Q: What sequence folds into this?
């Protein structure tokens, strides 16, 4: 009996030992391959990633041979941004010729997408308005001119007219208002272009509230920018790194806090600015300290976080595209903008490159799958809130 007992114990021990060896080998092989299991099918995962991509394209009309058609059908992008001027070729037109042509372009783009798109534009007024008067659109004054009227009547009138025009054209997202505080009037990208309502943060919040409310009345997503505030900057992040470590004021967060407290902050665009007092290593777009600690936790923002163009020099001169995209998503960016309108040239495959970077990063364990689903749900919730999609059943 004793011999049989010891034999049984020995067999069990060997079985456990051999099983453990096989398990270790299996885990080592899995680690060596770099493969990470995901809950979503590859097709579903790619669909969710696609919603996180907003891109620019060339063309004033859409056909089945056009770049944007392929982006919509193959990559299932979540949004597009339209421009009047094509920077790589230094020529007009990029997408916009006149009212009727633009309206048809927007309508045709939406027809091709299974999940309706964010169709966005920079229409701030003044010097930054892709819907220029010379193309037959309404003349809208700059934010600085709006802000001079402390009765808010100018901002109300101008933004009301603007949003009616945007609605008529089919746009559902405006990359405005600028809520940067005009702390440096010589700032080449804000103050010098009259893009700020005021040098007083409380006045910026008052004016932006009216601007945003008129957008809400017309079911247009107003994107407040450029978080956390670049009104004190001395350089333009389109062309180089803008370091605001020594110029930034805490009051620049106040417009975001006030607007969020009033339930008006639905989407926020993040600037590629450096503030080493907050994050010694990364610009705001790539920084959990900015996006999670300040925007999400301190301010309490629960909406969609949008990157500024990831092809700006402040990013492209310092990071490879894959590193920038992966770091931005891990930091908390929900929508990645690649405008395809930078000085490095136009790339008709840019949307696919971004999708593949994100997809492969998930498979390699560099991005958690839940981060994608988290952003995907925020994006769809925003589209539902603004009537861009009307049903939870969005898959064909």
A:
């Amino acid at each position: 009996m004793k011999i049989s007992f010891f034999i049984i114990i020995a067999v069990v021990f060997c079985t456990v030992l051999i099983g453990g060896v096989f398990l270790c080998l299996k885990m080592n092989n899995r680690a060596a391959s770099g493969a990470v299991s995901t809950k979503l099918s590859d097709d579903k995962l790619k669909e969710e990633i696609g919603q996180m991509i907003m891109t620019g394209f060339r063309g004033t009309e859409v056909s089945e041979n056009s770049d944007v058609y392929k982006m919509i059908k193959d990559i299932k992008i979540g949004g597009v941004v339209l421009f009047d001027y094509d920077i790589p070729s230094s020529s007009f037109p990029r997408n916009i010729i006149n009212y009727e042509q633009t309206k048809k372009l927007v309508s045709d783009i939406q027809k091709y997408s299974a999940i309706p798109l964010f169709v966005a534009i920079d229409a701030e007024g003044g010097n930054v308005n892709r819907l220029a008067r010379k193309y037959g659109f309404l003349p809208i004054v700059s934010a600085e001119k709006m802000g001079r009227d402390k009765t808010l009547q100018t901002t109300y009138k101008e933004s009301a007219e603007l949003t009616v025009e945007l609605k008529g054209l089919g746009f559902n997202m405006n990359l405005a208002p600028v809520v940067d505080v005009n702390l440096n009037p010589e700032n080449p990208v804000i103050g010098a272009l009259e893009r700020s309502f005021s040098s007083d943060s409380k006045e910026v919040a008052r004016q932006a509230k009216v601007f945003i409310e008129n957008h809400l009345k017309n079911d247009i997503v107003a994107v407040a920018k450029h978080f956390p505030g670049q009104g004190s900057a001395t350089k333009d992040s389109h062309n180089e790194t803008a370091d605001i470590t020594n110029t930034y004021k805490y009051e620049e967060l106040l417009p975001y806090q006030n607007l969020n407290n009033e339930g008006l902050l639905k989407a926020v665009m993040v600037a590629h600015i450096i503030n080493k007092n907050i994050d010694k290593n990364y610009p705001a777009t790539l920084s959990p300290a900015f996006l999670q600690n300040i925007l999400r936790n301190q301010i309490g923002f629960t909406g969609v976080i949008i990157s500024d163009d990831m092809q700006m020099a402040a990013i492209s001169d310092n990071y490879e595209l894959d590193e920038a995209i992966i770091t931005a998503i891990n930091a908390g960016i929900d929508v990645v903008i690649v405008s395809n309108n930078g000085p490095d040239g136009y790339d008709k495959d840019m949307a696919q490159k971004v999708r593949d970077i994100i997809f492969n990063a998930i498979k390699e364990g560099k991005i958690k799958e839940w981060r994608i689903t988290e952003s995907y749900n925020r994006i769809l919730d925003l589209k539902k809130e603004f009537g861009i999609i009307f049903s939870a059943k969005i898959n064909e």
Remarks:
- The mean pLDDT is 91.
